[in-house]
Design goal:
Blueprint lengths: L2 H34 L1 H9 L9 H14 L3 H11 L6 H11 L3 H8 L7 H21 L3 H10 L11 H4 L1 H4 L5 H8 L6 H12 L12 H15 L41 E6 L5 E6 L3 E6 L1 H4 L14 E3 L5 E6 L5 E6 L4 E5 L5 E5 L6 E6 L5 E6 L3 E6 L8 E4 L5 E4 L4 E6 L2 E6 L10
Antiparallel strand pairs: 1-2, 2-3, 3-4, 5-6, 6-7, 7-8, 9-10, 10-11, 11-12, 13-14, 14-15
């Protein structure tokens, strides 16, 4: 080998060695970065989205909160370290501690590190903070310093930033004592009370990430289960929502729907027009064109030998109407039953002994419907005579209130005292305490 060839071979070996060294050096740097800069490595992902399009940072915070609440604080701390996120922002904690202790320089310093819902919310919070500082300085008799705060920090640069609450502040500079200041400024003075109000008002402007509800993950999962149940086409179970598994979506099979008749109850002698289970599910009331009401107890459903038999005793057959009975309704506590029908009458029954508690003969035509108020004392009736009556058990036959409208085919009373009525092709809504005949549709 010639001298030139030897030199070229040596040069190639040195270049290869340098190349290998550079590669190893880069690998070491990358490994060190991944070990020592975990939070930096995740910083770009924090503001990203999951594969499903959800906010990754929000998901991580919710998971961290859930781990803490389930007693897995070590796991939560590890996730905080790896993700670079903290459930409780130290800057926010320090900021509110500074407000509570009146350390206004610290509060102003940490204010810039806090996230707000919007730029407007940030400006509102800034105004609240410096208004408190202004008032406390005046309360301490430091008028010159208060004036500087008013001039530098509370004087809006732009017209849209102007707030009417600032307008009265210059006048407070003229107050000669604390009593006058507190009366004209409508202020309770320096102390924990006004500072707590300030903290709460500023919290209303904070970014949602600071205001996560307790047990947020559990709440979201319950909402998901509720949504699945409400969208289950063949839902047919009385199990609580919480009993559904989180491992898979809830879905009832079509085969679970009742398709086979397991019991036939026969006692009425004419068409059965309406039936309704009691609220405790143990009794069933049916009414018929034959003018009778029958209360069936749970033995008729649990005992095969009861098929086709009459009720257990004659007290369970309620007679008193002279025409077909169009509607019945159990009272909220199941102790009473209201009925109405083609004889224009309304009757209240005691469901324990079958006796009539009250009879009302106000309607001048067929009474199509009736229902109870949730208080178990008042009830309403309506029918073909285009009148709806509100009654109660204590008063006589005279109604508490009446509305003259159109023919009513059905109605209901809501817990908020709204009455919903079906009238021909319309749905009418009114307040039970209103005499107005104007209805929302």
């Amino acid at each position: 080998m010639t001298i030139v060839e030897e030199e070229e071979s040596k040069s190639r070996k040195e270049m290869k060695y340098e190349s290998n060294n550079n590669t190893e050096h880069n690998n070491i740097n990358n490994n060190n970065h991944s070990k020592n800069g975990t939070s930096n490595g995740h910083s770009k992902e924090e503001n990203g989205k999951t594969e499903g399009g959800l906010n990754k940072q929000e998901m991580l915070r919710i998971i961290i909160q859930s781990l803490h609440q389930m007693g897995m604080s070590k796991s939560a701390k590890l996730l905080e370290e790896e993700s670079g996120l903290e459930l409780k922002d130290p800057s926010l904690i320090t900021f509110f501690d500074s407000i509570e202790n009146g350390k206004w320089e610290d509060a102003k310093s940490f204010f810039s590190k806090i996230e707000f819902k919007s730029e407007k919310d940030k400006k509102d919070a800034n105004r609240l903070l410096f208004t408190q500082i202004f008032m406390e300085l005046l309360d301490e008799g430091k008028v010159d310093e208060a004036f500087q705060v008013l001039r530098k920090d509370l004087n809006p640069v732009e017209e849209e930033d102007y707030d009417e609450s600032i307008q009265k502040l210059p006048l407070l500079l003229l107050c000669t004592n604390q009593k006058q200041l507190r009366e004209k400024g409508e202020w309770n003075g320096t102390g924990s009370e006004t500072r707590s109000v300030l903290s709460q008002n500023i919290r209303n402007n904070l970014s949602p990430r600071y205001l996560m509800k307790e047990k947020r993950l559990e709440e979201l999962l319950k909402q998901s289960l509720q949504y699945q149940v409400s969208n289950c086409l063949y839902h047919n179970t009385s199990d609580s929502i919480e009993s559904n598994s989180l491992y898979h979506d809830h879905q009832c099979s079509k085969s679970e729907l009742p398709t086979k008749c397991i019991k036939i109850l026969k006692c009425h002698t004419d068409e059965v027009w309406y039936l309704e289970f009691s609220h405790n599910g143990k009794r069933l009331a049916s009414c018929s064109k034959d003018s009778s009401i029958i209360i069936w107890d749970e033995d008729h459903f649990n005992n095969d030998s009861s098929q086709n038999k009459s009720p257990l005793s004659k007290e369970m057959i309620l007679r008193g109407h002279t025409g077909g009975i169009s509607r019945i309704a159990w009272s909220p506590d199941d102790s009473k039953l209201i009925s109405c029908g083609t004889d224009f009458e309304v009757k209240i029954w005691d469901t324990e002994n079958g006796e009539i508690i009250k009879a009302i003969d106000l309607h001048s035509n067929v009474v199509n419907t009736c229902c109870w108020h949730p208080d178990g004392n008042r009830f309403i009736t309506g029918g073909d005579d285009k009148v709806v009556y509100l009654h109660d058990l204590e008063s006589g036959e005279e109604p508490l209130r009446m509305w003259k409208i159109n023919r009513i085919t059905d109605l209901a009373i809501l817990k908020n005292d709204k009455i919903v009525m079906l009238s021909e092709k319309k749905i009418l809504i009114t307040d039970i305490n209103s005499d107005s005949t104007s209805f929302t549709m």
